[in-house]
Amino acid sequence: MSEPRPSDRHDASDPDDTFEEIVDEATQRDPDLAVIEAGSRTLRTHSGHPQGEAVPARPADPETDKALRAVEQELAGRWGETKLEPSVTRIAALMDVLGEPQRAYPSIHITGTNGKTSTARMIEALLNAFELRTGRYTSPHVQSITERISLDGSPIAPERFIETYEDIKPYVEMVDAQQPYRLSFFEVLTGMAYASFADAPVDVAVVEVGMGGTWDATNVIDSTVAVVTPISLDHTDRLGTTPAEIAGEKSGIIKEGATVILAQQPVDAAQVMLKKAVEVDATVAREGMEFGVTSREIAVGGQLLTLRGLGGEYEDIFLPLYGAHQAHNAAVALSAVEAFFGIGAEQARSLDIDAIRKAFASVLSPGRLEVVRSSPTVVLDAAHNPAGAKAASDGISEAFSFSRLIGVVGTSGDKDVRGLLEAFEPIFAEIVVTQNSTPRAMDADELAAVAVEVFGDDRVQVEPRLDDALEAAITLAEEDDEYAGAGVLVTGSVITVGEARLLLGRG
User: What order of strands is seen across the sheet that includes strand 204-208?
Assistant: First the structure.
């Protein structure tokens, strides 16, 4: 905050005394926030701040791994994330029998088309920097299902994931028996997340929608802050065929009296969001108006930013992520946290700059222009629609000086594949098309047919197996001394990126 934070740590022999001392130290600050933070800091005196890998490996213990696989198999037997019955009836019924765990803490709800997970991770890091205990729920996962539910910045332990599933399983079965359709994979995971956050307990939940907003399973929370990242065309068969139609679905997360943090949007999408805000008496902060990126410079390992938030300017922010889109995500995340603390509407002050710098410098976003190998450099990016591909293409061009870039692309069959390939065409010298191991993957030969139309036959190679595709791309990058600065970008799907990450030894 604007006042310096006490740096000393008290003797933890009496938690109640420690709690009172911390509250007393914070008397010059917002009293409600002081009590919340004091509780979390007292808790950490005993438990510490968990630290872990952003993408965890399989459990080392064989029995735990076996139990986790059993849970994964049971969840996989439910409706997948692409099969939906658009309502919150089933998840609301589950919340009811679980005792409404999602109301045990305040929350920040995030929707949009691209940038949701990176923004959620940034919000989480910022809240952690101010000693708040966080729960984060994001999707899909890159490698491990446990990534989806995080506590204090670390994926939930596999043992706790299994325990949470077993705890709510009888209630899930009870709801299944009462509804025309069983709870879906995503609905059960959402119930697990909300239950685990209440059990932790967390001070605030950071929740990313699965798809849309109005009828998304996450939308049983009453968030004080609604975040809308950039909207573009994706899931058009379910959400609508124009940005305005998609915005109509996504505006459903805006609740009565909330604060809306609105990233830069197409005009028609912004109009829909603003209309919804007026209808529910929500306050809107718009990127480019009330907040934004003041300046950005390329730096080693990322970028250096000056951000204008709701409470003023924040200079010399190092963000270890590449691309202008991540700078904009950072501005959105900062403003969301300011709004959560009441800055802008209720209080004219700024957050502590040192805490802000520390938080942003710690941000990880696996599979988002992530460098996983050198000689040649291999970068992973989970872009799966044209807007995401354009952002990744611009980020690669800006941050890397590849003399030649080879693409490895494996997509899902329900995406705008041509649009994605056209966004990458200017930066790929050659492309190796492939497919991941899931049923949703587009057949490599079908993808190759589209790729040939975009790139020409002489720039396209087909390798149906992802391991063969990686080897082929790396060979192409290494094949000539002239191209000593060549690189490889693996993209097209979160699943493709996750599987490539494992194959490249990052799992």
Answer: 154-155, 149-151, 134-137, 204-208, 107-111, 225-228, 259-262, 283-286
Strand partners, 239: none
pLDDT tens-digit readout, 377-435: 999 999 989 989 999 999 999 999 899 999 999 998 888 899 999 999 999 999 999 99
What's phi and psi for 242, nearest 5 deg?
-130, 155
Angle (nearest 5°) at CA 219 between 213 and 220: 165
Token readout for 171 is 């209630």
**pLDDT at residue 35 tops 70:** no
Rounded mean pLDDT of 159-173?
Answer: 97
Of 115, 54, 55, which is closest to residue 395 (Cα–Cα)?
115
- Which DSSP string do the residues of 200-264 spell out, in sequence order? TT-SEEEEE-SSSSTT-TTTTS--SEEEE----S-SHHHH-SSHHHHHHHHGGG--TT-EEEE-S
Please state, in angstroms and rounded to a whole number, the distance separating the CA atoms of residues 423 and 439.
25
* Cβ count near 110 (within 10 Å): 31
Q: What is the pTM of this model?
A: 0.85
- The number of angstroms, rounded, from the C-alpha of 371 to the middle of its chain's C-alpha atoms is 18
Q: SS in 3 state form for 275-327?
A: HHHHHCCCEEEEECCCEEEEEEEEECCEEEEEEEECCEEEEEEEECCCCHHHH
pLDDT of 233: 66
d(CA 271, CA 83): 30
Angstrom distance (rounded) from CA 216 to CA 207: 11
Judged against a pLDDT cut of 70, whether residue 254 lies above it is answered with yes
Query: What distance in Å separates the CA atoms of residue 326 and residue 323, rounded to the nearest whole number?
Result: 6
Contact 239, 212 (CB under 8 A): yes
